[in-house]
TrEMBL record:
GO terms for cellular component: cytosol. It comes from the Eukaryota. Coiled coil: none annotated. This is Pyroglutamyl-peptidase I. One of its GO terms (molecular function) is pyroglutamyl-peptidase activity. Belongs to the peptidase C15 family.
Length: 199
């Protein structure tokens, strides 16, 4: 009898503002072609998420319910990021930005969660340390910037903080092509999955 493989869900954001092509989705969309499923014995699901609060509210809980992923990986682009950045936490309030639908949150507060501040239980320092063995330099941050990136992270952390990570990627440039970003995301997924399987 064939055993059902664990599912990893990876998301990237669609276009917004100056990002007519969002580097996060450009990279995540390459993951299905990078042998990750075979190397890790998993099923990979990728999803492009619109940069809109109501879309996150709808899509993310549906992904958790449908796939019950062993790991949820959200990626977003940051114009200030110089390297791949692992975000350690997310907050419930302080969201003042307008999304692509010209919508804002009432009082700037996330409507789905209860805790003000949630951290991932995945050991990001261990991932950063192990990534150096593969010549990958990762940064860790505790400020995901109170826009859709932090909003989607809070959404998943409020569902399961033990199986969720978020990473900011730089804008596409000479150093970081979509393929190179995708290679970093693949490595992060493999290191996070290794950690989860050991625990």
């Amino acid at each position: 009898m064939e055993t059902k493989r664990p599912v990893i869900v990876a998301t990237g954001f669609g276009p917004f503002g100056i990002h007519s092509k969002n580097a996060s989705w450009e990279a995540v969309s390459l993951l299905p072609h990078m042998n990750l499923e075979e190397e890790c014995d998993v099923t990979l699901v990728t999803k492009e998420i619109p940069v809109a609060y109501d879309e996150v509210n709808k899509i993310v809980p549906e992904l958790w319910k449908k796939y019950n992923p062993v790991l949820m990986v959200h990626a977003g682009v940051s114009h200030i990021a110089k390297e791949i950045t692992l975000e350690s936490c997310a907050n419930r309030s302080g969201y003042c930005g307008v999304d692509v639908k010209e919508c804002k949150l009432i009082d700037g507060i996330h409507c789905l969660g209860q805790e003000e501040h949630i951290k991932t239980n995945i050991d990001l320092e261990l991932i950063r340390s192990e990534a150096k063995q593969f010549s990958a330099n990762l940064h860790i941050s505790d400020d995901a910037s109170r826009y859709l990136c932090e909003y989607i992270y809070y959404t998943s952390l409020s569902i399961n903080c033990g199986r969720t990570i978020f990473l900011h990627v730089p804008m596409i440039n000479e150093e970081y092509s979509p393929l190179k970003i995708a290679e970093h995301i693949k490595l992060i997924i493999k290191l996070a999955l290794k950690q989860l399987r050991q625990t």
